[in-house]
Each structure stands twice: as structure tokens, then as C-alpha cells.
Write a structure and sequence with these properties.
The complex is a heterodimer.
Chain A (H helix, E strand, L loop, with lengths): L1 H12 L10 H34 L2 E5 L4 E5 L3 H9 L3 H32 L4 H8 L1 H5 L2 H18 L10 H9 L1 H12 L1 H6 L2 H12 L3 H9 L4 H29 L5 H11 L4 H26 L12
Antiparallel strand pairs in A: 1-2
Helix pairs in contact in A: 4-11, 4-13, 4-15, 8-9, 11-13, 13-15, 14-15
Chain B lengths: L1 H11 L4 H35 L3 H5 L13 H10 L1 H32 L5 H13 L2 H19 L8 H8 L6 H13 L3 H9 L4 H10 L3 H17 L2 H7 L6 H6 L1 H12 L7 H32 L6
Helix pairs in contact in B: 2-16, 4-16, 5-8, 5-9, 5-12, 9-12, 10-11, 12-16
The chains are: A mainly alpha, B mainly alpha.
Chain lengths: 314, 314
């Protein structure tokens, strides 16, 4: 009896030795997945599975009954309806593309320009940055639409004609070559206020990107007698390209989730229609997703790292 | 004495071409920055100005910015319609809760990505970016169906409670979670690994390294992430509208429905005044002022945090 107790005590006192300590890789794997676990579970349950389900649902008719959902396979009829029967979907899609492409272009250029200038100044730096980071804080659906309503009213007052910038000399000149281009440019100027409100996060990204460019590069260039213009094109812009890619993706995603676009309204009403609307909502959102992915893919192509060409600008 | 003499010398120096060019360039930069900065501020000024105008001042075309007399009537009416007390409390609690959940899970995920070399790490990286690119509506319908199914099966009330969104935030699928993860990832990468190793040699577990070294050294990053998340959750209306329906009263959603609410309230009272732009402005001011106040307090740390942590996440 006593012997047993002693043995037990000894056993507890001696440190338990595992047969073999886990190898470095195993430990890395275990700990890495341990910390990632919440995100991975969430991703599988709330993003990946729903994503797959949307694709399946887009080929189905969904209707609600007492216990849950009746899902029946419907082939491509949802797609047929979306493209050929529903009179709102195709124009909404077109309007979305016509908004996203020029907007992204202008937003990226304007925000790079503003970030570049913000990076140049010394006095009043804090104040300026406070103002320029402001859209990050209040950029949102309802507040934005409130602010933009105001802007729209101002535009409409000026818009006796096609665009508020109808009479501008340069636009008139362009119009004589191509009315469509002039109309397009007039539109961009009309909506510049709105576009500026989307530049919040891209400016933040560009400012922090510019800050991280190594200062000695500029010094080396200056020693070699480069002027500001050359430095901008040969150092700053090539170095900022990855940031520009991130900013582009963010802008497209932001414009895509800007919830006053017509497509959102369509998806929302389809989702609210419990009587067979879910299938349509899935179809709409799936087509929409493909379009967004294509646009982002195009953006990636533009900012892809290319082999530097052996060509001197100057 | 010597210094004084030098100063006198300096005044006598005739400025060369380069000096003048730099000076003019600087003035031009400030000019552009101030002009564009005004575009961001103008709507806010207008909202503030209109909020404090009486009805006569708004109709009067000669009153543009400064009201003849301060009237708090608009604020009173708007806060009545918005039921500002409970709504504001709800919104703050809601956003802070979601932001806290998102911050914790993104810190864990960022830590895993920055410190461990586990299998398929690149794959998970791509998935994290993909989770951001896929537009929200695509996953929304299956998510909704999932929650409804679970609700029926387990007899727990899910739709119309905070539970689904709390779960999504805690499992890393909240608003723009990807961005938060990438911010943490880059910030953690900047903390030297030598510190972890020293702690590990002294017998610290992974959790201890995470808490006592990485978390404690990145206070500004945590602040930036929390603030971003707070703002985004504050402004988010689409997911909340779909999952909560109208069971919680949050400021942005209320602002969206301001017109109809206002009409019903006013007609119930039998009041003679009709919908007025000023009331809407006051309501907008109420719904953005908490964010503006918050921004005013943490603005300095926020901007520093953005500049120090490479928010770009390359």
C-alpha cells in the first residue's frame, strides 16, 4: 500500500518526458494554425461555403415553406431572366461598369497627386493631413448620400444643358472632334466632388507608401543631377506601383460595395422577396461578382511588375 | 554677436533663380492643397451652418453661411425624430463591440502570418485577399439562409439579434477584416524577432510572446485598427439591414429612413411645418458628430499610426 503511494509520488515528481519533442516544423505548423484557427473557421463557414452556395443557388429556384427552403434545380432560367426578361438588370450592370472604370482611374490619379503634394510640405503638415484623412472617418452610405444630394442639386442647377461645364472653351474644342469624349469629360468634372470623397483611403495608402521610399534613393538621384520631374518618373512612380495596386483593389471594392448603386437595390429587393427571390438574388450577385473580379483583374494587369525597359525618357 | 552679423549678411544675399522657383513651387503646392481640402470641408461647414439656421434664414437667399440668429430648433426636432438618446447609445455600443471583436481576431491572424511558417501559408494569404475582393452581396443570401435554417433547427432566435454579426466579427469575417489583418501583419513584421527568441529562451509560451511582446509593443497599431473598424462598423448598413431587419435602432439606418419617420411623426402631431432641408442637415450632423469628436481626440495618434505602420500590406 505504502509502496504504491511512494511509487505514485515518485512518478509525479519526475518530469514527464514525451517520447520525442515535436520537430521545429511541426511546432510551427501547430502554432500557426492555432492562431489562424478562428479566421479559418469563419472563412469556411461564412465566406467559402456561402460563395459556393451562391453559385449553386444561381441555377435554382428557391421558395420558402414552413420548415425551411424548397430548392429545385432550374437550369439557366435565372440567367435567362436576368439578361433577357428583367428590364432593369442589364442597364444597372452597364451603369455600374460605366461608373467604376472612370471613377477608379480618376480616384487613383487624384489621390496619388494629393498624397505626393502632402508629402512635399513641412509647415501645416498635421492640419493638412487631418483634413485629407477626414473622408476616411465619415465616408459612408447614408451620410455620403446626404452630402452628395447637396452636390447633385448644385450640379442640376448648373445643368440647364447636358453638363455643368457645357460652355467651357476647351470642352467645346474637344466636342468638335468627338462629342462623346466631351460629354464624358464633362461628366467627370460634374462628379468631381463625389469622386474626391472616395479618395480617403487611397490617399492614406499613398502617403504611407511614399513615406517608406528610402530617402537615400532621392539623394543619389540628386547627386546625379536629376531634377524633380525625373525623380518623380524614375523613382517615385516605379516605387509606388505596388501601393497603387493595393489602392486600386481597395477603390474597386469600395465602389463595388457603395450601397446606393442600382445593382445593390436590385439585389436587396430580390433578397427581401422571400417568395422565390433568393434564386434571383444569387444570380444577380454572382454575375455582379464576376464583373467586379474582371475589373480587378484588369487593374492587376495594369500595375503588374514589368521588366524595366531600356529606354530613356529624356 | 557673431550670429547677428551672419543674419545681416543673409538679408543682403540676393536670391537666385532657384530660390525663387522653390518658393513659387511651395506656394503653388499650398494653393492646390488648400483648394482641394476645402472641397472636403465645404459640405461639413454647410451642414453645420444649415443646422443652426431658423426657417426664415434658410428661405432667405441673402443668408448663405452665417445664420442671423442661432436657433437650436432644428437640432431639437431632428434629435426627437432620431430618438437620439437610445439610438446613439446603441450605435456606440454596437460599433465598439464589433470593433473589439474584429481587432482581437485580426491581431491573432496577423500574428500567425507574421511569426509562423506553416503549411499552405501562401494559400491562406490568397484566401484572405480573396475574402476582401468578393463583394458582400454574393455571400449574403446563403448566409441569411444558413442563419434561418439554424434558427429553425435549434430554436434560437438569430435573425434580428446581434448574434450572427457578432459571430462573423469574432471569426474574422466582419467589415473589411482583410485590411485590418494586413495592417497587423505589416506592423508585427516590424517588431524584431530577436525579442521573441529571447522570450522563448526564457521559457515564454507562444501566447505569452503574443501578449507581452507583440501586443504590448503595438499600441498605436491597435488604436488605428480599432478606429478603422469602429468607423466602418458605424457606417455599415447593408449587412446590418439584412440580418437585423429593424430590431435595433442605429444612427445611420435611422438617417436613411429620416424622411418617412419625419413625415409620420409630424403628421401624428398634426404639425403644420413640412419637411425642411435644415432638419435633415441637423440629423446628418448628429450622426457624424460622434465620429468627428472621436477623430479630433485621437487624430494625432491616428495619423502617426498610419505613417508608422505600413498600412499598405505588401
Amino acid at each position: 500500500m505504502a509502496e504504491k503511494a511512494v511509487k505514485k509520488a515518485v512518478k509525479e515528481k519526475t518530469p514527464r518526458r514525451s517520447r520525442r519533442a515535436p520537430s521545429y516544423e511541426k511546432r510551427q505548423n501547430r502554432l500557426g494554425y492555432g492562431f489562424m484557427l478562428p479566421w479559418i473557421i469563419g472563412f469556411l463557414v461564412f465566406t467559402l461555403i456561402p460563395f459556393g452556395a451562391t453559385i449553386v443557388l444561381s441555377f435554382c429556384n428557391v421558395s420558402t415553406n414552413v420548415t425551411g427552403y424548397d430548392i429545385t434545380f432550374a437550369g439557366g432560367s435565372n440567367y435567362y431572366t436576368a439578361f433577357f426578361r428583367n428590364t432593369e438588370f442589364v442597364p444597372a450592370l452597364g451603369a455600374f461598369i460605366a461608373m467604376v472604370v472612370p471613377y477608379t482611374f480618376v480616384i487613383i490619379i487624384v489621390s496619388f497627386f494629393m498624397a505626393y503634394l502632402l508629402n512635399k510640405i513641412e509647415a501645416g503638415k498635421g492640419l493638412m493631413r487631418t483634413i485629407y484623412f477626414l473622408p476616411v472617418i465619415i465616408m459612408s452610405g447614408p451620410v455620403m448620400s446626404q452630402i452628395l444630394d447637396q452636390a447633385d442639386e448644385a450640379v442640376q442647377m448648373a445643368q440647364g444643358m447636358n453638363s455643368g461645364y457645357e460652355g467651357v472653351f476647351i470642352l467645346e474644342m474637344i466636342r468638335s472632334y468627338s462629342p462623346r469624349l466631351a460629354g464624358f469629360m464633362g461628366n467627370i468634372f460634374d462628379q468631381l466632388t463625389m469622386i474626391l470623397w472616395f479618395t480617403g483611403i487611397p490617399i492614406v495608402l499613398f502617403v504611407s507608401g511614399l513615406q517608406r521610399i528610402n530617402g537615400s534613393l532621392y539623394e543619389a538621384a540628386k547627386i546625379d543631377m536629376a531634377n524633380e520631374w525625373q525623380i518623380l518618373w524614375k523613382i517615385t512612380i516605379p516605387m509606388i506601383k505596388p501601393t497603387a495596386l493595393v489602392a486600386t483593389i481597395f477603390t474597386i471594392a469600395q465602389l463595388g460595395t457603395y450601397d446606393t448603386s442600382a445593382i445593390y437595390e436590385l439585389i436587396k429587393t430580390a433578397t427581401a422577396n422571400t417568395n422565390g427571390g433568393f434564386g434571383f438574388a444569387a444570380t444577380y450577385s454572382w454575375i455582379y461578382c464576376i464583373i467586379v473580379l474582371i475589373i480587378i483583374g484588369l487593374g492587376c494587369l495594369i500595375f503588374k511588375e514589368r521588366q524595366p525597359r531600356r529606354r530613356d525618357i529624356w | 554677436m557673431v550670429r547677428k552679423a551672419k543674419n545681416i549678411n543673409k538679408v543682403k544675399v540676393k536670391h537666385d533663380f532657384k530660390w525663387w522657383r522653390n518658393r513659387i513651387a511651395r506656394i503653388a503646392i499650398y494653393f492646390v492643397l488648400i483648394c482641394v481640402g476645402f472641397v472636403y470641408l465645404e459640405p461639413i461647414f454647410e451642414i453645420i451652418a444649415k443646422t443652426f439656421m431658423s426657417a426664415e434664414d434658410i428661405i432667405d437667399p441673402s443668408v448663405n453661411w452665417l445664420p442671423r440668429s442661432l436657433s437650436l430648433n432644428n437640432l431639437k426636432v431632428a434629435s426627437n425624430v432620431l430618438k437620439v438618446g437610445p439610438t446613439l447609445r446603441n450605435t456606440i455600443l454596437w460599433s465598439a463591440g464589433m470593433a473589439a471583436a474584429q481587432t482581437i481576431v485580426s491581431a491573432l491572424t496577423g500574428f500567425a502570418l507574421s511569426r509562423y511558417d506553416f503549411k499552405f501559408k501562401r494559400f491562406w494569404f490568397v484566401m484572405i485577399v480573396l475574402a476582401f475582393i468578393v463583394p458582400t452581396p454574393v455571400t449574403m443570401v446563403p448566409r441569411l439562409m444558413m442563419f434561418v435554417t439554424v434558427q429553425e433547427a435549434a430554436a434560437i432566435q438569430l435573425i434580428g439579434t446581434a448574434l450572427p454579426q457578432a459571430m462573423m466579427a469574432l471569426l474574422g469575417q466582419g467589415v473589411y477584416s482583410t485590411v485590418l489583418i494586413l495592417v497587423f501583419y505589416t506592423a508585427f513584421n516590424m517588431i524584431p524577432r530577436v525579442l521573441d527568441e529571447a522570450a522563448q529562451i526564457d521559457g515564454a509560451s507562444a501566447m505569452k510572446v503574443f501578449w507581452f511582446i507583440v501586443v504590448k509593443m503595438s499600441a498605436t497599431t491597435i488604436l488605428v485598427v480599432f478606429l478603422f473598424s469602429f468607423v466602418w462598423n458605424w457606417n455599415e448598413t447593408y449587412i446590418t439591414g439584412t440580418l437585423m431587419r429593424n430590431n435595433i435602432e442605429l444612427l445611420p439606418a435611422k438617417l436613411n429612413m429620416f424622411n418617412s419617420e419625419f413625415d409620420s411623426l409630424v403628421s401624428a402631431q398634426g404639425g403644420a411645418f413640412k419637411l425642411n432641408e435644415a432638419y435633415k442637415m441637423a440629423a446628418t450632423l448628429i450622426s457624424i458628430s460622434p465620429l468627428l469628436i472621436l477623430y479630433a481626440f485621437v487624430q494625432k495618434q491616428f495619423i502617426q499610426g498610419i505613417e508608422n505602420t505600413g498600412i499598405t500590406g505588401e
